[in-house]
Amino acid sequence: MSLPSADPSTAKPAGRVLGLDVGSKRIGVAVSDLLGITAQGLETLQRQNKRLDFEKLAKLIREYKIAQIVVGYPLRMSGEVGTQAQKAQKFAELLRAETGLPVHLVDERLTSWEANQLLDEAGLSRLERKGKVDKMAAVLILQAWMGKNSF
Q1: CA 23, CA 87: separation in Å to the nearest integer?
Q2: Whole-number Cα distances in Å, 133 to 5, 45, 86, 136, 138
Q3: Which CATH superfamily is domain 20-148 in?
Q4: Residue 136 has pLDDT above 70, yes or no
Q5: Considering the entire predicted model, what is its pTM?
Q6: Do 17 and 32 form a contact (C-beta atoms < 8 A)?
Q7: Which residues lie across from 104 on neighbouring strands?
Q8: Distance CA 86, CA 88 (A)
Q9: What is the distance between the alpha carbons of residues 101 and 104, in angstroms, rounded to a whole number?
């Protein structure tokens, strides 16, 4: 008995996945392992301008051999698309055009709240959490996407 060949249009590209929590001041960054099972926070980038932000992301994409990217999609609690979600869509479109990689939007409602809860449970003060919340939110966004797209 032979197995059917994978449909290339739905096959998961080989390589790591980059997870991004994009805000107006910072971008939280996470990366998957090679098998797409676990997510690890990398860093929090301080936003400067689009050119420099994309240069930093391009460096990470090369360094980690990224195959696809996941961007948090901040829908309103009602599920409606608001201003922040529109900005995330635009960022994802630009990122797709700049990198040529598949870029996916993932519902990120409550990830920052959940990240704060996890860091609070870890005993980090509000001052110690600064910048870590964005990185942790990127991990949660990436984990949510991997959970829905595992094979």
Answers
A1: 9
A2: 41, 12, 22, 5, 9
A3: YqgF/RNase H-like domain (3.30.420.140)
A4: yes
A5: 0.80
A6: yes
A7: 70
A8: 5
A9: 10
